[in-house]
Structure formats: structure tokens, C-alpha cells
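Hi there,

I know you've been waiting on this one. I reran it after we fixed the sequence typo, so this is the corrected version. Both the input and the resulting structure follow.
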Amino acid sequence: MRLAFMGSPGFAVPALRALHAAGHDIAAVYCQPPRPAGRGQRETPCPVHRAALDLGLPVRTPARLKRDAAEHAAFAALGLDAAVVAAYGLILPRAMLDAPRRGCLNIHASLLPRWRGAAPIHAAILAGDAETGITIMRMEEGLDTGPMLLKEAVPIFPATTVQDLHDRLAEAGARLILRALAEDPPGVPQPEERVTYAPKLTKEDGRIDWQDDAAALERRVRALNPWPGTFFTHAGEQVRVLAARPVPGAGPPGTVLDDAALVACGEGTLRLTRLQRPGRAPLDAEAFLRGFSLARGTVLG
């Protein structure tokens, strides 16, 4: 089948590799343009760009699509059976959605209509969902509103981190898009009464509010690391919390209750087990506390 692949981050790479390995004719790979990265701010291609080059596939990196008539015409000229989209990062205009014979198929990392939007993997962990999954949908102009073609559920365990879940969903997406292309299942409309949204995350979403209950804060730590990261402020520094566990107990929210980084929350307490200072290596709490004081009675910001 003649395809375009449209994706940018690591989540999309297993699907691209699976489509190539299955023998599909990938006429073009679309991804975000290279961005400055690292200490030297060198122009760095995204993971899908690098994977496409490894596979010898042609890459296109338009900065925008909405009003680019030349890009619309070039896309239509590819003569596609379908386009596969996975976390591309640009909104496809109607002219491009309509160009492939079987439309544009999106690999979405949730069981739609739950968690439409930009950060569905994080949102599922934050909410304490017992499962999430992959939905293959045929794209429309609305935000993740199109008819569903296939679904596969993926469990969320008590210790699941966002990276664990990301990797499992990426592999599930690769499997499911191959099935969708092979089977061409009919689309099923999404039930609008069950819609929830997962908005784009910001750095401020990682700030720990000690008024929250300990179980919710522990989920936040698992959901938001490595980015945007969860943190509190103390002694003029933003300290990242990389791992924690809820513990029964009580105290004024934000107060350190012992000498081993146990902090009172709005309900329960949170044992901080792995932390990181700015510019330093991550450390288990015992080693961290040898170089950074969180004395009993300290109130954290």
C-alpha cells in the first residue's frame, strides 16, 4: 500500500519501522523540522526524522501546513492510499485529510473518546485509570473526533510510569495500524457523552501542591517524569521528585515529618525516595539527604 507517514517523537518510531518492515511503500515521511537542542543548541532532527533516514525514506519537514497550497498539492501528488499519523504535531487541513484514497489514519494513545488531546498518556496515569490503550481512528478536522476503526486496551499497574506506558502503547500502536490497513474495518462514531480531554502540559503542571492527597501526588510523580518533571521549592532551589510512595500518616501539608523525607499532604503522607537538585545527578533519598537538608519540621514550597 502506498503511504505517507506523519509523526515526530519516539512514540511514532515503532509504527514507522513496522510499516516499512511489512513492505508498505512509504512515499514520504513528514515530521517536525530540526530544533536547537543540547548545550550547544545544535539543530537536531526529531526521532522520526532520524529513523526515516536510517530506513532510506524521503523526509519532509514543513514548518506549517494550514495555508500552504503548494504543500497541499505536493501531498496530493503522492497518489496515496492512506496517510498514517502518530503524534505529528501539526494540524492537517481539509485538503490533506481528503487527499489519500482511504483517508488519514491516526494512532491515538488512549481509548477514545476518553482523553482526546495532546497528553493522553500522562492524563490516564494522573486520573488513576486502570487501563488505557490505542485507538486507530480516521481523522476529521475536529480534535480527535473521527470514527474509530480498532482499539487495543493496555493495563496501567500501580507502579506504571509514563515512560513504561509510553513504550507499551507505542508497540501496541505499531501492531494495530498494520491490522487497520490490512482489514479496512468500518468506522464507529465516538460516543460524545463520554468525552474527556488531556490538555497540553506545561512546566507549571509539575509543581507539587502539598494540599493534594498523597495518592494523587504519587501518580503525578509517575505521570510527569521525565517531562515536565515534578518539583517543590526549598532553600531557593527547585528540587525534582523522581520517585515517591504514599504512606499512612498526617500532619500540616508540606511539612517534613521525619529525617528520611516523609512529607505531610492534604491527606496522607508522601515518602520521597528519589530526588534531584538542579544541575546534579539523580540520587536515592538517603544519598540526597547527606548533601541537602530536609530537616524535620521544614515546610516545603
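Quick highlight: The chain is about 25% helix and 25% strand.

Best,
R. S.
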